[in-house]
Amino acid sequence: MIGSFPQYEQFADEFLDHARDGFYNAHVDRPACLELLGDVAGRDVLDAACGPGLYAEELAARGARVTGFDLSPRMVELSRARVPGAAFRVHDLGAPLGWLADASVDLVLLALVFEYVDDRVAMLRELHRVLRPGGALVLSRIHPTADWLRHGGNYFEPRVVEETWVNGWHVRFWLSPLQDTCAELREAGFLIERLVEPRPQVAGAEVDPVRYERLSCEPTGFLAIRAIPDPRVR
Q: What are the two backbone dihedrals, phi and then psi, of residue 203, each rounded to the nearest 5 degrees?
């Protein structure tokens, strides 16, 4: 189990500095998620587990009405400072979204947090509840092949692992195969509309040519999925 401890709280400011221009965030995941969200102008977007507000900032700049939340109080502070026109609060992604009405948002973004949630089906059902008909969920997660290459073992056996990243940040998260993510979405009432294995933007070649070359030809980065509510489930 991961539980409800805000793992990123103790290095939230460092994470902002890292993610703002970092190769994986700025040149791989963020562009992929924003592309899958599509035109957000005039739409209500929920940024679930918003982190320091980098996605929210871009969404607001593109004309979205943004609501966000994060388990880390410091992340919420950083988001409020970065996107003062949006509404942010401290909230556990694993808890019901009691402050949001049914069918109250057009789009939900769930970027790089899927693997930190214990009951992913319950979480997805809540996100399904707050989506309007015709809405969509965009989620990204670590590519399961990347996890398996680092940790080995049985690829098909979900388990919690611990890592200490190069900057000294210690994190715990779930390893799970792609088939489980697809099954969890289906159980929660979603249909997968698109699944992409994003490769770096061309600009990333100037930032880090080695990573650019590797992530352009290896499945060691992220997955991004656009899922829509199954009209047969309500």
A: -60, -25
Which residues have a Cβ under 8 Å from the Cβ of 27 and sit 6 or more positions away? 200, 201, 203, 204, 207, 212
- 105, containing H or E segment: strand 105-111
Q: What DSSP string runs through 114-172? A: GGG-S-HHHHHHHHHHHEEEEEEEEEEEE-HHHHHHHH-S-TTS-EEEEEE-TTS-EEE
Q: What is the pLDDT of residues 16-57, one digit of tens each?
A: 999 999 999 999 999 999 999 999 999 999 999 999 999 999
Distance of CA 223 to the CA centre of its chain: 10
C-alpha span between 140 and 30 (Å, rounded): 9
Helix 120-130 to helix 178-187 angle (10° resolution) is 50
Bridge partners, 163 (sequence order)? 171
Gap between the Cα atoms of 46 and 115, Å rounded: 19
